[in-house]
Amino acid sequence: MREDDEPRMTDRRAASAPGSNEPKPAEGSAQAEGDKSLEEQLAESQAKAEGFLQSWQRSAADFQNFKRRTEAERQDMARMANAALIINILPLIDDFERALQNVDPQLAGLTWLDGIRLIHRKFQSLLELNGVTEIPADGEPFDPNIHEAVMFGEGEDGRVISVAQKGYKLGDRVIRPAMVVVGKSAG
User: From 3.10.20.30, 2.70.70.10, 3.40.50.2300, 2.30.22.10, which CATH number describes the 132-187 domain?
Assistant: First the structure.
């Protein structure tokens, strides 16, 4: 048997002792690899957290925009419903005004006629409370945005000389243009 064939035995205590010739595992290399992966994991986690934060901020902004848009749509729907109701009430107001203008002077002191005048005033105050205003027309310059010319008559050119039917606005929006007679020079 040769020396090479003999099993080798190593004293581990001696190998780990200072001055031993056997190579030691690099202490810093495994730890460096562990630290590096921890740093990478930290960077990845921070990137994910930043992504989640940005996503949350976008979602929060989208939700705020949705709430604003929904509230604006709700207000528009309420305005449209009010406008539709008011447009249907305006002919009643016109009828009251025509009836009150054509009252026989002999009936002027009767209580039922005073009651009708009160009802007319209540309708007008109801319209005012809801933001409905009458469009000024008589004597005003003709404006096609708020007036509808139904006739021309002799008078100052481009001015409204009489009103055939009152016009009304709901806020800034014209819900019924004033039907007017517009003056035209005779020349």
Answer: 2.30.22.10
